[in-house]
Amino acid sequence: MRFLSIFFLATLAFGQSSRVLPLSQNQSQDQMQEIATVLQAVAGTRVSTDNTTRAVTVEGTGAQLALADWLLRQMDLPTNGQYAGVHEYRQAADADDVARVFYVAHAPDRQALQELATVIRSVADIRLVYLYNPLNAVAVRGTGPQISLAAFLVDQLDQPADAAAPEPHEFKLADDDVTRVFELTNPENPRELQELVTLIRSIADIGRLFVYNPRRIIALRAKPERVALSAWLVKELDKPSDSTEPAGGPPQEYKLSDDRFNVVRIFYLQNSSSREEMQKVSAEVRAKAEIMRLFVYAPLRALTARGTADQIATAEKLLEVKQE
Question: How many Å apart are CA 172 and CA 86, to the nearest integer?
Answer without folding.
Answer: 21
